[in-house]
Amino acid sequence: MNDQFRLMFTVSSTKELADADLTRFSASIPEGFAVLMGPSRSRASKTQVFNGNTALTYTYILSAPQAGTFTIPAASITVKGEQLRSQPLVLTVTPREQLLSGQSPQSRLDAFITMTVSERSPRVNTPVVLECKLYTAANVDSLANMEQYISSGDFKAEPIDLRGSQWQIERRDGKNYRTVVFRKLLLYPLRTGELRIGDLHMDAYIRKANEAIDPFDAFFNDGNAVSVKKRLHYERHPSCTRITL
């Protein structure tokens, strides 16, 4: 309650978009939130964009003067004549006394990765799909330094094109996360027995609010955020990382 936070709607494209290509942006802020400023529009550079070449973001600065669960309806925008819509977003505003001591919503940088396979008992040379997914409750600018060992003696691996992959909203353990599939492989088992897929490690650059900067000043120069590197590790689960033929 009463914390200021930023609500951002981002249009991401694998092609260059001019400002004139985006028209008729519309978003509804439900009763229960105070709009301090917005929307403002900013453009990310190519080096900041994950899974795309262009990203334009519409940002609101809001505060939540009352506790409860609120639904932000889908926003809409016309891009080169085509109307796009976001998914609705559910937010839970918690009374301040229920927050953990010394912890604020901006300081909880929740992000983790998962790894699943489509089939755990395939035949030799019958492909299975390995899917690696990012879950985040914060804004992730980019992913880097991915490490995963897949033995060439156990599998033939072919990458699956993810250029059309989109961010989704997924509820897990009672909490909403933004998710995206960042790696997908076709794995062809080359022998019988128990085959193990190596653990997954990577860096996520997470945007964290810079509380030292006045939010009203930052609204105009997009300076109320710093990029924090967080090393993510897939927590091994035998049923997901091992395949028996």
Total DSSP E strands? 18
Instruction: Assign the structural class, choosing from mainly alpha, mainly beta, alpha/beta, alpha+beta, or little secondary structure.
Output: mainly beta
Helix residue percentage = under 10%
Rg, rounded, reads 21 Å
Q: End-to-end span in angstroms?
A: 53 Å
How many helix segments? 2
Overall 3D shape: globular
Query: N-to-C SSE series?
Result: EEEEEEEEEEEEEEEEHEHE
Contiguous low-pLDDT stretches (5 residues minimum) are 45-50, 99-109, 237-245
Strand content: over 45%
Q: How can the largest sheet be summarized?
A: 5 strands, antiparallel
What would you say this structure looks like, in words?
With 245 residues, the chain is mainly β. It has helices at residues 215-221, 238-241; strands spanning 4-13, 22-26, 34-44, 54-63, 68-72, 76-79, 82-85, 89-93, 111-117, 128-136, 139-148, 155-159, 168-172, 175-189, 194-196, 200-209, 225-233, 242-244. Strands 9, 10, 12, 13 and 14 form a 5-stranded antiparallel beta sheet that branches. A 3-stranded antiparallel beta sheet has the order 1-4-3, with helices on one face. Strand 13 and strand 14 (175-189) form a beta hairpin.
Summarize this structure briefly:
With about 240 residues, the protein is mainly beta. It is about 5% helix and about 55% strand.
List keywords for this structure.
five-stranded antiparallel β-sheet; single chain; 245 residues; three-stranded antiparallel β-sheet; 2 helices; mainly beta; disordered C terminus
